[in-house]
Amino acid sequence: MNKYQNIVVLTGAGISAESGLATFRSSNGLWNNHRVEDVATIEAFQRNPAYVHDFYNELKPEILKSQPNSAHLSLTRLQHESSAKVSIITQNVDTLHEKAGSENIYHIHGQINQSVCLNCGYILESWNDINTETICPQCQTCGMMKPNIVFFGEALLYMDKVEKLLRNCDLFLSVGTSGVVFPTASFVQTAKYYGADTYEFNLEITSNNLFFDHHIVGKAGETLPNFVDNLLKKREN
Ligand code: OAD
Predict the structure, then answer these.
(1) 3-state DSSP assignment of residue 4
(2) Domain 22-65+111-149 class in CATH
């Protein structure tokens, strides 16, 4: 364990699957029932904001009531019990890492419980429905709140910080992501280039496999706690 000082964990929808939340690209996934072009692009939002708001509003109750699973909890344990700095970069818009008690979380795709005012930039945090009549609490403009979710074509959040984390990490873990959305899919490459050991935790080996040193195949709720246990045991020995 002492071998590692800076651990970066990249998480995707697969880490929340065992909490009952749908992933994006599985046969019953979120994108299977919706066209990305209709709900996850800035053009779609400009064309039909009510439809886009409805899509995200409908996801909120289920996400709000979901609970972290053993994979989320194992990352919190790693943060609390290891001497390494552990940062979590998540593509997930749920808040299960927070609910699990983790810290140093970077929501590069935004959060479902936030909306941003396109007029003044104010970020409103709320699990209530947001719609085309919502008034910004800061500038009082009506109808300019957008879900604070990064749509296709928009820049990812926290990228300066993320780039630094990737360059400085000595252990990079990718958990439950298909690795098909760029630039996130290239994070492993950057971490590897700067010398990190790299692990993938997934139900299957993804196509991004060239840059992973190790593949741990199985449910993250089982494989990740085991891995964390072993890392922490190595520290004790
Ligand atoms: P995907 O749905 O593309 O991929 C989920 C991955 O998790 C797949 O590779 C599954 O094999 C794996 N998986 C499923 N259950 C698992 C389990 N129990 N344990 C381990 N792995 C499991 O989701 P993401 O990769 O997160 O962006 O998708 C990336 C982005 O694409 C999302 O953040 C979303 C979407 O467009 C936005 O909405 C902005």
Answers:
(1) coil
(2) alpha beta
Q: Are 71 and 97 in contact (CB under 8 A)?
A: no
Per-residue pLDDT of 69-117, as tens digits, reads 999 999 999 999 999 999 999 999 999 999 999 999 999 999 999 999 9
Q: Which of 154, 18, 186 is nearest to 89 (CA)?
A: 186
**Helical ranges in 66-158 per DSSP H:** 70-81, 96-99
Do 1-21+68-109+156-237 and 22-65+111-149 fold alike per CATH?
A: no
Ligand 1 atom, smallest distance to 92 CA: 33
Mind telling me the catalytic residues? Answer: 109
Distance 146 CA to ligand 1 centre (A): 23
Task: Say if ligand 1 is within 6 A of residue 183 CB.
Answer: no
- Predicted model pTM: 0.95
Q: Does ligand 1 come within 6 angstroms of the Cβ of 181?
A: yes
Cβ(14) to ligand 1 under 6 A?
A: yes
Q: How far is the CA of 134 from the centre of ligand 1 (A)?
A: 31
Q: If DSSP codes are grouped into helix, strand and coil, which group holds residue 87?
A: strand
- The residue nearest atom 15 of ligand 1, judged by CA position, is 14
Tokens of 65: 């009531």
The neighbouring-strand residues paired with 152 are 41
The domain covering 1-21+68-109+156-237 belongs, at the CATH homologous superfamily level, to TPP-binding domain (3.40.50.1220)
- Partner residues linked to 116 by β-bridges: 123, 146
Q: What are phi and psi of 114, to 5 degrees?
A: -130, 150
Separation between Cα atoms, residue 145 and residue 57, nearest integer Å: 13
Regarding the beta carbon of 219 and ligand 1, being less than 6 Å apart is answered yes
